[in-house]
Amino acid sequence: MKKTTVYTVYFLLCSLLFVAQTKKRHYKQREIGFLLGASYYIGDINPVFHFKDSKPSVGAYFRYSSNYRYAFRGGFNYGGLYGSDSKSNSPDQLLRNSNFRTRIYEINAIAEFHFVEYRLGHKNHYFTMYIFGGLAGFHFKPEGDIGFGWQSLQPLRTEGQSKAYSLYQISVPFGLGFKYNVNDFVGIGVEWGPRKTFTDYIDDVSGLYPDPIVNPPSGNGMLYSYRSRDGGDLIGTMRGNPRTKDWYFFYGLTLNFKLPDAKEHCYGVGGKKYN
Question: 3-class DSSP state for residue 204?
């Protein structure tokens, strides 16, 4: 079963749990949180192995809760991605001999669902597992190294594209985590979050090897496209798999702080306001 199908089934099952278990217990709570962990990618250069070549990542977010079962947050994540064909056992990848690195800058909006009732600072509802899903925008800029230092790949059009791909893309973040209250104001947790993207160029590998006469790369792009160690004729053959899109992932430890409650006004007899 393809990983996309597995993730889809997982998310649908979790959504059913959300509908079945949500109760109307309302309150208002605001938090700020931080993610300290790592990031990695799945794509043409690393098609299988989760957590491989993980790079440090950090994140920050604002969370708003109005119910013991769900919360909403918006935040920013920063991390690095890396991959190299030279680390593979696949003959096709060793022949291609490509590599890349990129920084990922992400802004996201996410909804969370708690499997058990939870509230930061509550003595009876002090831990939960949760799932989340949302929408994000991200920026990336792949670079390659052929022995002369890292070179930006997108302007080179290494597959002879008529137009360079966009470095700004949309992704669908989702995943799961665990939260636990340390005291009345602080919570800790762990989280793992895949990002489904709609681009196949995070690693600058997607389609066919270009024809240097018909659709040549720009500048010295041929050096970064044709990196085969045997020097064979690869024109028009598959360099990547355009039918699958790239994924990136954030995971790590979370640290949450409850913000002071907003000051509320009480209204007495006749509508007089008291602070």
Answer: coil
Residue written as tokens 């043409």?
A: 44
Count of CB atoms situated within 10 Å of the CB of 107: 13
User: Residues 164-175: pLDDT tens digits?
Assistant: 999 999 999 999
Q: What is the pLDDT of residues 179-197, one digit of tens each?
A: 999 999 999 999 999 999 9
Which amino acid appears at position 153 of this protein? L
pLDDT 10s digits, 218-262:
999 999 999 986 656 899 999 999 999 999 999 999 999 999 976
CA distances from 82 to 52, 53, 56, 135, 207 (A): 9, 6, 11, 23, 19
- pTM for the model: 0.86
- Helices vs. strands in the chain: H and E counts, helices first: 3, 12
Q: Check the CA dihedral 86-88-90-96 and report its sign.
A: negative
List for the chain the helix, strand, coil content (%; round to 5). 15, 45, 40
Both structure tokens of 11: 């998310």
Rama region for 101: left / alpha / beta (φ>0; ψ in -120 to 50; rest): beta
- Evaluated on CA atoms 6, 166, 62, 42, the torsion sign reads positive
* CA within 13 Å, CB half, 11: 19
Taking the alpha carbons of 232, 235, 240, 243 in that order, is the dihedral positive or negative?
A: negative
List the domain boundaries for the chain.
Answer: 3-274
Closest CA to 234 of 95, 89, 98: 95
End-to-end CA gap in the chain: 60
Q: Please state which CATH number belongs to domain 3-274.
A: 2.40.160.20
